[in-house]
Design brief:
Structural class: mainly beta
Largest sheet: 3 strands, antiparallel
Radius of gyration: 18 Å
Order of helices and strands: EEEEEH
Strand order of the largest sheet: 1-2-3
Low-confidence stretches: none
Bound molecules: zinc ion
Distance between the termini: 40 Å
Number of helices: 1
Mean pLDDT: 93
Amino acid sequence: MQEYKMKETKALERIVCNGCGRIIAVKHGMPMEGVLRVRQVWQYMSGKDGQIDSFDLCEECYDRMTKQFQIPPATTDAVELL
Ligand SMILES: [Zn+2]
């Protein structure tokens, strides 16, 4: 005998770039292109104490944002774990 219970699951369906509003496709919970996910918990010493901000940027918006930096982001190669 098999018994089943209805279960509600939360699955990532799509990502919307906060920079340009473009929809980034997601398959099996994985974005189909590069996405920067930011989640910032503002601490006591900031003017936003206790506030949590989050946003997503597509790769184009990421490139546009980082080109405005006075100092470019540090870049290293990710080590692939086997
Ligand atoms: Zn974008």
